[in-house]
């Protein structure tokens, strides 16, 4: 491994020789002195080189080397990866971190094409075409550092609780959610379908007596829409636990996970988030407010917004309105909307005892947008089959799933959460395209 | 949440009232006394109930309840999930953990069908048909607890080193490895393909200046073979790091990850592994032995095995032989075979400086089976294009990938490792079907 020093570690070093590696962010090529801003994954540092513009005929090798270095810097294309050795010097007059490296030798590891295809003001679509360059911006890269920290904190909670990590198959023989949004795969002599969620398989783990499971993995929806919140492939954060009394137990776990995730992000990246996103990220307090959906719709109506939907569901503006209300009334960024109508929930959501028009379910709304759906599942096979029929589904097609319930299964529930949405809303971004490593949509499969 | 006590926590409790929940493993219905073995995700406990076979006419409610409980136990189908309250009693005469619970009340949460479709001696294929029942066996469930611990330890190392977790898309516009084993997806008006590995996308992160990345996610191969080591969908453990000098740096990281993973597994599950698998799992020592492939083939030949392949590769028996040699010579379960011929490596592996017939690559062999391929990648665009042409590939089709190298990229490398293979070999299993949550093969898409 090259013995380079990460830029973020320079501040703690005394003045003296160092090696740094990274890419060229800017070059200021003045007559007498050259400045290069070198950036690596941890930060940026100023390199300085007194220019040697010409040497006498017959000058010594050292002078020739100085000339070569000067010319190499003049020729440096932005984005080129370089390794530099030089003298670290702490100097409070240097704006960038109060230090600079006086260049002794320069190795251009790979030169970039001189013309950069995107600029700071390029459209989002153009930036996505050149995502690998877009991600060099500290702000874009920070998103994925935050995501790493967030996921690691969630997994820490799950592991601590003894839950089991599963990797469920993405190739299925039939639909897991709705036939309408299903991708079909040529599978040898037949067909397979891409999993729209790990729903059936994480429930299978409950029948297997696993007690509780989690998974962070891809899910696929053949959704032709082009909103800022939808993708054809997205990372779903899933968990499912046994022996619950109701969806309230799922919400309690959900809160605990979010608090742990936000705490870790605030601790590790709070200052950078304030710096690059202008956001003072706070850890949400528990419990998160809970509002039954019917009540939430009344609150929204009282605010003067009539939800233009024929079914019983919220719409995006309704979610924004109820979120605004919760922020005003409780000072909270999160709200659980509970007890959704059975008419707009999948067949496997458990219905209220005594009122089958409502389900033991919730959506979690964060800063005005739905990030997750959770529920207690129906584990009684006769009721489950009835509810599937109710939804116009053919129980025969669901045989493999229904079998999970025929040999005993504990009461259970869980949630699925869109990772990119959480990050989008946490950082005040306007599209999940910004918080997805490589976005996939109806017209985007590249890069 | 139900206030049940996990079975593993009973031992530490004093005698007294407890509630346990789980499924019925066995029932011994004797005339005077009934025994039920209840298992949950943490262990098994004996429940005991003095049988009440009949009550006098006009007996009190309590006596009727005792009769009802006795009859309920007699009717209990194996696998049914139950919640039991009763008196915990420590009694060293009880073989199972030195304790039992004297049953006070029994709630049959979900009754199982009385006929269990699989038995201990069922074929692997039959067991896979009923995977959710198969996974109730402590041995099968332990596999996924071990996997959870192993992955969490790996991620701990990556996070500690500052690597970034990425979720790369599984929907691609073209092949990432070989056209031959590519699944095709109907994608709106066109076609997409399922990623065979995150190779291109984890390299993209190096061009993006991420420094180092990791991913644990699905990979897909339309491989029609039915061996014990292949699946059409498998979990790939991937990492890629920048600023390496050679594949030696990748191997150093690989070793560090394996040692951390094995250490965590031994610490947390060593005793259970010994108990259920009869294996005394040890943490491998560093460094793992390294043998150049040419030398390994000579060693194998000297042992009397001639590899029946026309190309320069090892075959499975060759891998077993070299592993046996390493075990004899160095007492090690792991061996890095290095410097594979360019002819049998993908176009993106870097070739030796001075000998383009060899690559800066390795396979990691564990207990006789290849579990991973790693390499330094070629980051020089002109060389990379040349190597792609060499392999008969059309650089035009690789344009989006080749672009990653045109705007600067540091030297880098990484590996991909099959998770189910590691677990299979760690636990002495004979097929990855045993160590995959839900196996997918050419003729298996269910459950």
Automatic annotation (TrEMBL), chains A, B:
PROSITE patterns: AA_TRNA_LIGASE_II. The keyword ATP-binding applies. It is an enzyme of class 6 (ligase). One of its GO terms (cellular component) is aminoacyl-tRNA synthetase multienzyme complex. Residues 144-447 form the Aminoacyl-transfer RNA synthetases class-II family profile domain. It comes from the Bacteria. It is found in: Cytoplasm. Keywords: Aminoacyl-tRNA synthetase, ATP-binding, Cytoplasm, Ligase, Nucleotide-binding, Protein biosynthesis. ATP binds at residues 370, 418-421. Residues 199-202 are annotated as: Aspartate. GO terms for molecular function: aspartate-tRNA ligase activity; ATP binding; RNA binding. It catalyses: tRNA(Asp) + L-aspartate + ATP = L-aspartyl-tRNA(Asp) + AMP + diphosphate. Its EC number is 6.1.1.12. GO terms for biological process: aspartyl-tRNA aminoacylation. Belongs to the class-II aminoacyl-tRNA synthetase family. Type 2 subfamily. Homodimer. PANTHER family: ASPARTATE--TRNA LIGASE, CYTOPLASMIC, ASPARTYL-TRNA SYNTHETASE. Catalyzes the attachment of L-aspartate to tRNA(Asp) in a two-step reaction: L-aspartate is first activated by ATP to form Asp-AMP and then transferred to the acceptor end of tRNA(Asp). This is Aspartate--tRNA ligase. The lineage of its organism: Bacteria, Bacillati, Actinomycetota, Actinomycetes, Micrococcales.
